[in-house]
Amino acid sequence: MNLFARTALSGTAFALVAGAAAQSSDKGSYYDELIRSMGIEQKIGAKADLNARFTDQDGKSVQIGDLLKGRPVLIVPGYYTGPTTCPMLTDNLLKVLARSTKQGTLVLGNDLDIVMLGLNPKEGPKEASARKSALVDVVLEDAKEQVRRNPMNLVTGSASGDASRNKLTEDIRTHWTVLTGSLDEIKAFSDSIGFRYRYDAEKGSVDYPTGSVLLTPKGVISAYSIANDMPTRILEGNVATAKQEKLSEKVDQIQMFGCLSYDPQRSPYRGIVENAIRVTGTLTVLILGFSIFAMSRKPKGPSNDSGGTPKA
Predict the structure, then answer these.
(1) Is 85 found in the same domain as 213?
(2) Which domain holds residue 20?
C-alpha cells in the first residue's frame, strides 16, 4: 500500500478511536451501566451453595452437592442460545482437554468434572441437551479440521489420536453436566461463587463476564479463571491444587472479557459504526482510483522488442 493510502487509513482509524473514546466517556450510557453490573468477586476459600438445585440436560433434578464425586469441579457459567452465546471459553477448554486427554495429564472423570451453569431462566433441558451435543460436535469437527490441514495424519499413526478423541467425547457425555434453573436458583448460586451478571427478561438475553470457578472435591472455591481462554499449564496446576483441598492465588483482573448483547438503538457507538462504514467505503474508492491513475502515469521503460541492447 502506498504512503497516501496508509496516511488516509491511519487518519480514519485515529478519528474513529478518538470518537469512540469521546462517546464512551458518558458514564450514564446504557453500556457503561451494563458493564458495571457485571463482574467476578473472587471468593477464594468460601464454600459454594451445595444445596442449590437445578435441572440437568436429561431433565433430572440435581443439587450441586450431588455433582461432587471426589474430584474438583469446574463451574462454567454461560448462556446456551441467543445473541450473547460465547463459545470461545468452552471451545478453548475443549482444545485443552483434547491435548491433555491424549497426554494423560488431565482427564475428565479422573481429574475433574465440568458443570455448565445456564444463566437464562427461559432455557431448559432441551437447550441444555442441544448445547451438550454441540460440545461433542466441536471435538469431532476439530478432528476433521486437523485432517484437512495435514492429510498425512490418516497415514502416520492417527490411531492414538482417534482413541483419545473417542475417550474425550465419551467423557463429555458422562462427566460434563449442563444445568438450567429458575431465576432465583441461578441468582443465589451465582452470588455464592461471586459471579455477577445481568439478565434482561424483556429481551430474554444475558450479559455476563467470561470466566470459570474451580471447586475442591468438598465444594470450596479454590481458583478462578477470568478470561476467554484457559492455558493448559494453569488449569492443570489449579486442578492439582484443588485435589488436595488447597487454594490457588487470586488472579489479576487487569482486564475482563464479557459476552454482551448488542442493541444498536442504545449503543453509544452506533453513529461511529455507521459513519465508519460510509467513510471506509468512500476511501476505498478514492484510494483505488488514485492507484490506477498513478500506475497509468508511470513512464514505461525502454523497449527491447528488437532483441538488441537498449541504448544508454
Answers:
(1) yes
(2) 3-26+268-297
Pair 248, 238: CB distance under 8 Å: yes
Place of cell 431448559: 124
For the chain, give the number of residues. Answer: 312
Q: Which residues of the chain have pLDDT under 50?
A: 1-28, 84-85, 147, 154-157, 267-278, 303, 305-312
Q: Are 58 and 124 in contact, with CB atoms under 8 Å apart?
A: no
What tens digit of pLDDT does each residue of 181-205 get? 999 999 999 999 999 998 888 887 8
Cα separation of 186 and 169, whole Å?
27
Give the predicted TM-score (pTM) of the model. Answer: 0.71
Same domain, 18 and 123: no
- Quick count: other Cβ atoms within 10 Å of Cβ 305? 5
Question: In sequence order, what E strands does 181-262 have?
Answer: 195-196, 198-200, 205-209, 212-215, 221-225, 258-259
